[in-house]
């Protein structure tokens, strides 16, 4: 992708496609002008050879044919030129076919059998063959099934029984390891039929045998070197008495090799001295709960039966909610990564980096609520991340089609040319300039280059000028012209109508033109705005993310994806490497669908009044889930495996063969040796039948290098129906072909022009119609919290996720510290949970028979059920005021045994919390803030979410998605004290008032009745104060700035309290009450 190609805008449905140049000299230009010579068979660009020259298939007539069609004709066609009928000769880089043995003028041993990198080449070859078959491209009328190219079985390079990656291919010695004479075959060869022999290769007697790999000097020298190292190792062991030798002396090569083969991460279980008491107290609490409810149910309060019944129902619900929350925390773990081992294994000196490519997604909607400067800092931190630049691409989704976002991204790409080399030269953290220059720390720490101070000052000045330019764009965008925005060349901005505009793609930085001030290449930066038309459901953020998945698959197709909100910048430049320690681990990575990082935030007040940090969830609950099947997906800061997003099942581990018996029928399940037959993939069985029906030979499925794992990429290539794939992924042959490349990479035969055209196609508004996008593929639709639903579907497919907490927080974002904004955020989360609960994806009944662990299911049930707790919580918080006003209570007079159960339950609750904080490291202040906001959110946002969810699902009344305002340039914590009235404030305000009234009434009644009434009053007061203390942060939010309570509030509070006291005295005067018989004067003198 060239960075200077301009903004590509178009609509696939309307057959419109234009290129808008960024300079003023060029006007619109047809996309076809970007292409070169056209292939006369498939209509694609002919392309270049491996040497960079124009590809010529026929040397006789130079008939224009692309490389893919040339290879297809040689393997499956007539092997002759369509124009001059001359037989095609084998060109450099092409595999040998039958009839090439007599051609001695071509000597291309490196590519003749294509030994090196077999898996990737097979996938590339078959995917391109599928692409240029008879796929319909979405225009109907073509029902023929595509032809699949049949490739010859290929043999991996083996040298002395070991895979070798640092010897040139022409120096390898081919040692096929067949099993002969009943011997054991150590290295299984990737043949579909093990009985097939290796195809013999004719050799020219005039050539040296070393050219064919036999008896090569390099192989002999390596073998001798290996023997000498083994002898030295044995000698050191003998000298040390059999103990392991140290790393001193001249033998560091062996430990270096051993270090590179070590696991890239490891689990760190919680110390038994911390976790075992925690588990014991949970069991004890369960037992105490049983006795507690036994007493509560069998001892009703007859004179306050309604209060007793409501309280018992609420307490039972709280107990069930606690069980759903508690048991997924039974197996918490920590994890540790080894970045040095990752570099040793995949970044060898003098060789290109073998780290996998990563596509990073940044989503934004409204530049007025999500300031362009915030988005710019996120993008800059991505471009400066510590990762190979050729493996990195950043896609920014502008779902609001705002020209302000487009222009801001253009300015950001220019500033990145200066910022990125500065970050990498001095290795600074964080690499978001706004937060780097504003942090209060010694910026000279660990800096040894004398020019650092001078360059830092210059860079800070450059950034301040950059901020001024961004602020000028924001000020200009406040007033929209009547005719709409106009681009630099005079063209109207295609996104002037936010609800009706074509799809837009602009490559700001890329392979061509994307270099910094030092001449080094920069990562790709692509602007994407999907097409929107009236009458289509665009599915908000989930739809935008799915559009980015398709665009990135067409343009770069990295095997891993990282999604970030526009306000979440990369705080740790090695964060992507941390995730690769799990994704690229040969033992663990194959079954990992995503690596979730914790969310950390900037700009939160010291006391964290509204529990924005959410530490209990991220440091306790998520660690517990990591010990089961992995954490849930929380919407940002997550690295995905692309194949998992495509809805594929996780590879299943092979079970060792067990004993079987034939004495019982097939339906018998009592015999320990018989198991259930595995469910086969419908797509695979169908394509097998089609191959046999059409007479196609099945291509050999490569055997996965990791022993004990099924579901290899080769099987998926061969055993998947193209027609089914189109119905699943949509009518784009380029995208469908990319889904078969498990290790990523784009199709070599495709030109940049065709890729851009296809990218516009896959972001069209009707592309997802009649496909599985949003139901089985990509981000799942049906809830405003698409993150929980997407992760749940992956876990149901048998994948597991990983929770990674590096020492330095990997990402940081901004949180809504204002009370009203915070409640609206919690409302959206709770509404999404209600939508999932009322849908077919509810964890209570969905996903059985898949790969979801039962403890993981409990966590998902808790994540969707928790808003319903608001109803019993609201009732329970109202009970203290009712008890104080009526003089009744929810429990009868307690006996000694009953007091013991009550006391035991309170002790277990406090002990569980203390032990939980002990093993997790969460502070008591953070735990207490979480408890307080659980009550505040439960009686406000969660309650409204329940009613809004019922209205949306049952009555069809939709609610709008409100984008949370992100932090700007306001004064520190200025938003914390801002008062914004919303209906969400009514329920907690009412609870506060009635409980305060109840306290005053109860104390007045006790004063009136004497000291004997103070005893029963203490239980009621404790109940009321429990509610008031939990709502205290809400009360502070109502009062405003700390220590600056408005005078009018104080006056009205005193006035209302006085009026209420006088009314209570009038209603219930200070007269002694007696419960004995009424005595009357009888008139007799008893003395």
Automatic annotation (TrEMBL):
* Enzyme Commission designation: 2.4.1.12
Question: A biological process (GO) annotation for this entry?
Answer: cell wall organization
| Residue stretches making up the RING-type domain | 39-85
Residues given in the record as UDP-alpha-D-glucose binding sites: 363, 369-370, 399, 540
CC annotations in GO: plasma membrane
Q: Which cofactor does it need?
A: Mn(2+); Zn(2+)
Q: What class of enzyme is it?
A: transferase
User: Where in or outside the cell is it found?
Assistant: Cell membrane
Q: Any stretches that span the bilayer, and where are they?
A: 278-298, 305-324, 865-885, 897-915, 935-955, 976-997, 1017-1035, 1047-1067
**Which residues participate directly in catalysis?**
399, 787
- Which keywords appear in this protein's UniProt record, sorted alphabetically? Acetylation, Cell membrane, Cell wall biogenesis/degradation, Cellulose biosynthesis, Glycosyltransferase, Manganese, Membrane, Metal-binding, Transferase, Transmembrane, Transmembrane helix, Zinc, Zinc-finger
Q: Does the keyword Manganese apply?
A: yes
Q: Which reaction does it catalyse?
A: [(1->4)-beta-D-glucosyl](n) + UDP-alpha-D-glucose = [(1->4)-beta-D-glucosyl](n+1) + UDP + H(+)
Which pathway is recorded for this entry?
Glycan metabolism; plant cellulose biosynthesis
**A single GO molecular function term of this UniProt record:** cellulose synthase (UDP-forming) activity
Q: Which family does it belong to?
A: Belongs to the glycosyltransferase 2 family. Plant cellulose synthase subfamily.
PANTHER family from the xrefs? Answer: X-BOX TRANSCRIPTION FACTOR-RELATED
Q: What is this protein called?
A: Cellulose synthase
- Naturally occurring in which organism (per UniProt): Paeonia lactiflora (Chinese peony)
Highest classification ranks of the organism: Eukaryota, Viridiplantae, Streptophyta, Embryophyta, Tracheophyta
């Amino acid at each position: 992708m060239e960075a200077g190609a301009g903004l590509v805008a178009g609509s696939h449905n309307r057959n419109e496609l234009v290129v808008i140049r960024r300079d003023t000299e060029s006007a619109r230009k047809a996309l076809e002008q970007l292409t070169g010579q056209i292939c006369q068979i498939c209509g694609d660009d002919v392309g270049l050879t491996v040497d960079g020259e124009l590809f010529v298939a026929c040397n006789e007539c130079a008939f224009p044919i692309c490389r893919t069609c040339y290879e297809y004709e040689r393997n499956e066609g007539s092997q002759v030129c369509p124009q001059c009928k001359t037989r095609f000769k084998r060109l450099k880089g092409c595999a040998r076919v039958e009839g090439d043995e007599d051609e001695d003028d071509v000597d291309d041993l490196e590519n003749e059998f294509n030994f090196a990198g077999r898996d990737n080449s097979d996938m590339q070859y078959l995917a391109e063959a599928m692409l240029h078959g008879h796929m319909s491209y979405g225009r109907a009328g073509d029902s023929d099934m595509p032809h699949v190219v049949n490739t010859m079985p290929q043999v991996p390079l083996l040298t002395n029984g070991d895979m070798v990656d640092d010897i040139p291919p022409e120096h390898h010695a081919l040692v096929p390891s067949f099993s002969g004479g009943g011997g054991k075959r150590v290295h299984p060869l990737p043949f579909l039929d093990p009985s097939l022999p290796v195809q013999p290769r004719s050799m020219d007697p005039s050539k040296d045998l070393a050219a064919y790999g036999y008896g090569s000097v390099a192989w002999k020298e390596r073998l001798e070197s290996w023997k000498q190292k083994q002898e030295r190792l044995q000698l050191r062991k003998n000298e040390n008495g059999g103990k392991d030798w140290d790393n001193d002396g001249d033998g560091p090569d062996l430990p270096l090799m051993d270090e590179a083969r070590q696991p890239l991460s490891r689990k760190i279980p919680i110390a038994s001295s911390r976790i075992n008491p925690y588990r014991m107290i949970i069991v004890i609490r369960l037992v105490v709960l049983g006795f507690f409810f036994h007493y509560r149910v069998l001892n009703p309060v007859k004179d306050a039966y309604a209060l007793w019944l409501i309280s018992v129902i609420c307490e039972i619900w709280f107990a069930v909610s606690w069980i759903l929350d508690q048991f997924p925390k039974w197996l918490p773990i920590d994890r540790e990564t080894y970045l040095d081992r990752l570099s040793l294994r995949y970044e060898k000196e003098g060789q290109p980096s073998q780290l996998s490519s990563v596509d990073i997604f940044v989503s934004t909607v409204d530049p007025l609520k999500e300031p362009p400067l915030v988005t710019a800092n996120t993008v800059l931190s991505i471009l400066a991340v510590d990762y190979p630049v050729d493996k990195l691409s950043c896609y920014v989704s502008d779902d609001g089609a705002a020209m302000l976002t487009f222009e801001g991204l253009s300015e950001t790409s220019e500033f990145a040319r200066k910022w990125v080399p500065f970050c990498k030269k001095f290795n600074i953290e964080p690499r978001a300039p706004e937060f780097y220059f504003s942090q209060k720390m010694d910026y000279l720490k660990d800096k040894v280059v004398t020019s650092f101070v001078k360059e830092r000052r210059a860079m800070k000045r450059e950034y301040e000028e950059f901020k001024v330019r961004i602020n000028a764009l924001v000020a200009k965008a406040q007033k929209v012209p009547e005719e709409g925005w106009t681009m630099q060349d005079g063209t109207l901005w295609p996104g002037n109508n936010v609800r009706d505009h074509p799809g837009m793609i602009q490559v700001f930085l890329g392979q061509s033109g994307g270099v910094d001030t030092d001449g080094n290449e920069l990562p790709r930066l692509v602007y994407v705005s999907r097409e929107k038309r009236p009458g289509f459901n665009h599915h908000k953020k989930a739809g935008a993310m799915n559009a980015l998945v398709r665009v990135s698959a067409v343009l770069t197709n990295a095997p891993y994806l990282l999604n970030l909100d526009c306000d979440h910048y990369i705080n740790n430049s090695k964060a992507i490497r941390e995730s690769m320690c799990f994704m690229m681990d040969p033992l663990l990575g194959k079954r990992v669908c995503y690596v979730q990082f914790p969310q950390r935030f900037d700009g939160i007040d010291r006391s964290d009044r509204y529990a924005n940090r959410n530490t209990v969830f991220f440091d306790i609950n998520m660690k517990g889930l990591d010990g089961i099947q992995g954490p849930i997906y929380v919407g940002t800061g997550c690295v995905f495996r692309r194949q998992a997003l495509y809805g594929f099942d996780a590879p299943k581990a092979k079970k060792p063969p067990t004993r079987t018996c034939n004495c019982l029928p097939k339906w018998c399940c009592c015999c320990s040796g018989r198991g259930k037959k595995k469910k086969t993939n419908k797509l695979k069985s169908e394509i097998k039948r089609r191959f046999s029906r059409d007479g196609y030979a099945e291509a050999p499925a490569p055997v996965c290098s990791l022993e004990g794992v099924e579901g290899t990429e080769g099987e998926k290539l061969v055993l998947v129906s193209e027609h089914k794939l189109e119905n699943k992924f949509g009518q784009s042959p380029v995208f469908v072909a990319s889904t078969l490349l498990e290790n990523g990479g784009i199709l070599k035969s495709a030109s940049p022009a065709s890729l851009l055209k296809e990218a516009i196609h896959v972001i069209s508004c009707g592309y997802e119609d009649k496909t599985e996008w949003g139901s089985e593929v990509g981000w799942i639709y049906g809830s405003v919290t698409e993150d929980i639903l997407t992760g749940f579907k992956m876990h149901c497919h048998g994948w597991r996720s990983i929770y990674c907490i590096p020492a330095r927080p990997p990402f940081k974002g901004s949180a809504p510290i204002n009370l009203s904004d915070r409640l609206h955020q919690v409302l959206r989360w709770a509404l999404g949970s209600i939508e999932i609960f009322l849908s077919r994806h509810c964890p209570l009944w969905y996903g059985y028979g898949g790969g979801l662990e039962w403890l993981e299911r409990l966590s998902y049930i808790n994540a969707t059920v928790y808003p319903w707790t608001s109803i019993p919580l609201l009732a329970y918080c109202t009970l203290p005021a009712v008890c104080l006003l009526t003089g009744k209570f929810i429990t009868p007079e307690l006996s000694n045994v009953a007091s013991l159960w009550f006391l035991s339950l309170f002790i277990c609750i406090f002990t569980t919390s203390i032990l939980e904080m002990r093993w997790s490291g969460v502070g008591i202040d953070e735990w207490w803030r979480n408890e307080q906001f659980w009550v505040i959110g439960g009686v406000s946002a969660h309650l409204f979410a329940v009613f809004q969810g019922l209205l949306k699902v049952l009555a069809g009344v939709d609610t709008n998605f409100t984008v949370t305002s992100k932090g700007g340039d306001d004064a520190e914590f200025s938003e914390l004290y801002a008062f914004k009235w919303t209906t969400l404030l009514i329920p907690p305000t009412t609870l506060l008032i009635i409980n305060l009234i109840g306290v005053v009434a109860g104390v007045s009644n006790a004063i009136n009745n004497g000291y004997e009434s103070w005893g029963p009053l203490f239980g009621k007061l404790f109940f009321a104060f429990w509610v008031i203390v939990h709502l205290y942060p809400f009360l502070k939010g109502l009062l405003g700035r700390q220590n600056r309570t408005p005078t009018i509030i104080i006056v009205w509070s005193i006035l209302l309290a006085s009026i209420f006291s006088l009314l209570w005295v009038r209603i219930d005067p200070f007269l002694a009450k007696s419960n004995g018989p009424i005595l009357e004067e009888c008139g007799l003198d008893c003395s």
